[in-house]
Structures are given as C-alpha cells and as structure tokens.
Design a protein that fits this description.
By secondary structure, this protein is α+β, with helices and mostly antiparallel strands. It is built from two helices and four strands, in the order E-H-E-E-E-H.
Length: about 70
C-alpha cells in the first residue's frame, strides 16, 4: 500500500481529508495510507507525494504555471 505525505496550507477537516484521499486513490488506482501535515510555507492548496510521484496543487505552482503560459504567448 503506497504511503503519502500531504503537506497542506492549513489543517484539513476530516471530510476534506477523506475527499482528498478518495481522489488520490481514484487517480492512482491504489489504496493509499495518508499522512497529513500543515506547511506554513504554502500559500494555499496541497502538495502530495505518492511514492516517487508528486502532485503539486499549491497556489505557488499554479501561479508559476500561469506565468510560464503567459511568457510563452
């Protein structure tokens, strides 16, 4: 069973943890054991590591992607 490290910008409610875990299990097709933690360096969102794969849903990453898109135009 893959383990995840899931730093988030703020503490998640039980319902939010359950939803995030459900989405990750659907995306990976595997049952996942999750470990949640707060990260004061995140502006918002979450960064999730499943094995060696990182899913970066942080605000910082979204802003970086937007900047790269605008620079390419």
């Amino acid at each position: 069973m893959p383990k995840t490290e899931s730093p988030t910008a703020r503490a998640l409610s039980d319902a939010e943890k359950k939803e995030l875990l459900s989405v990750l299990q659907r995306r990976t097709g595997k049952k996942i054991e999750a470990h949640f933690a707060e990260d004061d360096n995140l502006l918002g969102g979450a960064v999730v590591r499943v094995g060696s794969t990182v899913y970066d849903g942080s605000v910082r990453e979204q802003l970086n992607a937007l900047r790269e898109q605008l620079e390419a135009e």
